[in-house]
User: Which sequence fits this backbone?
């Protein structure tokens, strides 16, 4: 029995020197990889009472919320250097930019605590509680 495995190499330059960039997590697939003029196409208006953002993207209503990375964590945006032809080929990615907060968007539904990204941001605290030292 053979096992097809590939290796992903990550080239991380000093994080302090990396460019900070705004990050948007969209509820769709956009067939573009690379920088985009987000401010030209996606201008959010903020509602005062819920810290919720609303935009229209290609005629569809999106509702978003800004999330901070968990304390002690920094988000990385990675860019593939040499695109592989298949999943079995080795890949190399490099640090493109960093972020400490992101805006995630839902398609026509209000952001809430049950959204997957919100629960993922809670995971480090939960993991610490599960695996941390037990106090009497």
Assistant:
């Amino acid at each position: 029995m053979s096992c097809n495995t590939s290796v992903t190499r990550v080239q991380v330059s000093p994080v302090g020197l990396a460019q900070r960039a705004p990050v948007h997590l969209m509820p769709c697939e956009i067939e573009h990889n690379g920088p985009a003029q987000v401010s030209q196409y996606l201008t959010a208006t903020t509602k005062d009472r819920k810290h919720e953002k609303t935009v229209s993207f290609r005629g569809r209503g999106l509702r978003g919320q800004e999330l901070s990375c968990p304390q002690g964590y920094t988000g990385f945006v990675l860019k593939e250097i040499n695109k592989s032809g298949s999943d079995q080929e080795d890949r190399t990615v490099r640090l493109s930019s960093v972020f400490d907060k992101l805006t995630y968007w839902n398609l026509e539904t209000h952001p809430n605590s049950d959204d997957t990204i919100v629960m993922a941001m809670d995971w480090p605290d939960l993991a610490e509680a599960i695996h941390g030292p037990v106090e009497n």
In short: The helical segments are 38-41, 116-131. The mean pLDDT is 82. The two ends are 50 Å apart (CA to CA). Strands lie at 8-11, 24-25, 45-46, 53-57, 60-68, 75-80, 91-99, 101-107.
